[in-house]
Write a structure and sequence with these properties.
It is a single chain. The radius of gyration is 16 Å and the shape is elongated. The chain contains five helices and no strands. It has about 110 residues and is mainly alpha-helical.
């Protein structure tokens, strides 16, 4: 089964903006860390910043781009893998969806 139950889809759809904001905030924290430690190391910090933005942009795309019910399970797995989908959020979904996410996660870790 690729799609999640309708009830779970509604939970994800309604949580998307909050989860995306959390993911972006995590990225800003990484950027702040680099920015604050750049003194006498500007070019290396710039390269690190560029790499982080590129990597994190790919993760954001994997988690949130083209989000639809048919691929929601895989999006949830990515969110869990990257630390965006906390236990608190995971528990909002049905036991079936929780189990599928945790099972699929084994193949990604």
């Amino acid at each position: 089964m690729n799609s999640i139950p309708e009830k779970d889809w509604k939970v994800l759809r309604n949580s998307k903006e909050e989860l995306l904001a959390f993911a972006c905030d995590n990225i800003f924290k990484k950027v702040d860390r680099i920015s604050q430690s750049r003194v006498d190391n500007e070019h290396a910090s710039y390269i690190e910043l560029w790499q982080i933005i590129q990597t994190e942009n790919n993760k954001i795309g994997e988690m949130f781009d083209d989000l639809k019910r048919s691929n929601a399970l895989f999006k949830l797995v990515s969110m869990r893998l990257y630390g965006i989908l906390s236990d608190e959020y995971l528990y909002k979904f049905s036991a079936e969806t929780q189990q599928q996410v945790l099972e699929l996660l084994k193949y990604r870790e």
